[in-house]
């Protein structure tokens, strides 16, 4: 069905019928648009919440066009839940829905382990995705005398819940949060409040995740190590069977001066920095030689306190974004080729990422370019 833009310029909203959805261009009066002929509920503008959609998953406010849709269609409007869910700027910026729709891929064949503070079992968008068989309490009672050790997220920020929801919330509620909603999620709890008494918990978590069959591991934890610690712990990582076959993404950390944080700076891990939605390096990230790949890390909405999406910032949330995108790619490759190669995929993630300010040593992940290269 063709519609015509009325007497004012009309914004094109990418991926969602929302006023805060990404807008890359506008159409001049008289422009013709080919739409699918269906009606979609979205944000209210000038007393109307009805939008039209094209095959590229772009939305147009119906008040801005001339159309021949019968009144009867408005009376019997039926909206699919997936088309009425709220998305956020970081989600739209990465064109996640476009990947889903173009490649029919939501991560079904991938497994991702999130090593963090656990997850909220009261969150139905996560509880439906995570079985207790895929959870592991890595903490030892001797390090936490008198404190109950449970997989449920006890952190005041709900740090682990946020990270898990970004990777793969089921997206059955009013918001689209999970990048790979059909991926298998594994949760290893190695912290209660964001700190750990012994770095060995990180090693134990990675070892467990690999034994469980994770394709990807997301670690939103960072600390400074010195001297022999770096050597010894690096050797411990190196000795983990099959570590060379798994993608381990770890948060670069935050510092006003260049610093190396771990586990991100170990050669077995991929250090993830934070970027802005203007595609610049965020002040939320440290600057070091190990951190090449970046992803949005400012005001990232996810499930936190109160079970309602709220924003939080830092490389902690850039990391599960990259893990979720990688899960989509791994699943796609498994489905098409029956296998995937870590080094080949990582190379494509790097080479399709956009240089920041012309600097090839600092890049921002680009899911659309990545999938075109697969």
UniProtKB/TrEMBL annotation:
Active-site residues, as the UniProt record annotates them: 116 (charge relay system), 159 (charge relay system), 316 (charge relay system)
Superkingdom to which the source organism belongs: Bacteria
MF annotations from Gene Ontology: serine-type endopeptidase activity
A Pfam family of this chain: Peptidase_S8
Record-linked InterPro entries: Peptidase_S8/S53_dom (IPR000209), Peptidase_S8/S53_dom_sf (IPR036852), Peptidase_S8_Asp-AS (IPR023827), Peptidase_S8_His-AS (IPR022398), Peptidase_S8_Ser-AS (IPR023828), Peptidase_S8_subtilisin-like (IPR050131), Peptidase_S8_subtilisin-rel (IPR015500)
Domain Peptidase S8/S53: residue ranges: 107-360
Keyword Hydrolase belongs to the record: yes
SUPFAM superfamilies according to UniProt: Subtilisin-like (SSF52743)
Gene3D superfamilies: Peptidase S8/S53 domain (3.40.50.200)
Keywords from the named record: Hydrolase, Protease, Serine protease
One Gene Ontology term from the biological process aspect of the record: proteolysis
CDD domains: Peptidases_S8_S53 (cd00306)
Family in the record: Belongs to the peptidase S8 family.
Name of the protein in its database record: Subtilisin family serine protease
């Amino acid at each position: 069905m063709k519609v015509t833009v009325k007497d004012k310029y009309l914004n094109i909203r990418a991926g969602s019928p929302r006023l805060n959805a990404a807008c890359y261009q506008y159409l001049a009066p008289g422009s013709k648009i080919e739409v699918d002929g269906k009606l979609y509920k979205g944000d209210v503008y000038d007393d109307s919440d009805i939008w039209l959609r094209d095959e590229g998953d772009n939305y147009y406010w119906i008040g801005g066009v001339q159309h021949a849709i019968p009144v009867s269609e408005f009376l019997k409007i039926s909206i699919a839940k997936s088309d009425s869910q709220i998305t956020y700027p970081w989600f739209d910026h990465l064109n996640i829905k476009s990947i889903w729709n173009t490649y029919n891929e939501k991560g079904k064949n991938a497994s991702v382990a999130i090593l963090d503070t656990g997850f909220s079992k009261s969150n139905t968008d996560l509880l439906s995705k995570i079985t207790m068989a895929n959870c592991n309490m890595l903490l030892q009672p001797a390090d936490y005398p008198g404190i109950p050790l449970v997989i449920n997220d006890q952190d005041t920020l709900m740090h682990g819940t946020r990270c898990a929801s970004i990777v793969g919330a089921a997206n059955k509620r009013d918001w689209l949060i999970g990048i790979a909603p059909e991926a298998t999620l594994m949760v290893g709890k190695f912290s209660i409040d964001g700190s750990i008494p012994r770095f060995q918990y990180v090693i134990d978590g990675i070892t467990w995740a690999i034994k469980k069959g994770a394709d990807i591991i997301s670690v939103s934890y960072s600390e400074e190590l010195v001297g022999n610690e770096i050597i010894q712990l690096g050797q411990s990582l190196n000795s983990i069977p099959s570590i060379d076959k798994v993608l381990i993404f770890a948060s670069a950390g935050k510092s006003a001066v260049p610093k190396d944080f771990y586990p991100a700076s170990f050669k077995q891990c991929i250090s993830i920095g934070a970027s802005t939605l203007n595609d610049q390096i965020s002040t939320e990230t440290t600057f070091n030689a190990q951190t090449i790949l970046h992803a949005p890390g400012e005001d990232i909405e996810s499930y936190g306190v109160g079970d309602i999406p709220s924003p939080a910032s830092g490389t902690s949330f850039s990391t599960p974004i990259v893990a979720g995108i990688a899960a989509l790619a791994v699943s796609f490759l498994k489905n098409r080729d029956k296998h995937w190669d870590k080094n080949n995929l990582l190379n494509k993630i790097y080479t399709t990422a956009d240089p920041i300010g012309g600097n090839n040593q600092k890049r921002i992940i680009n899911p659309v370019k990545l999938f075109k290269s697969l």
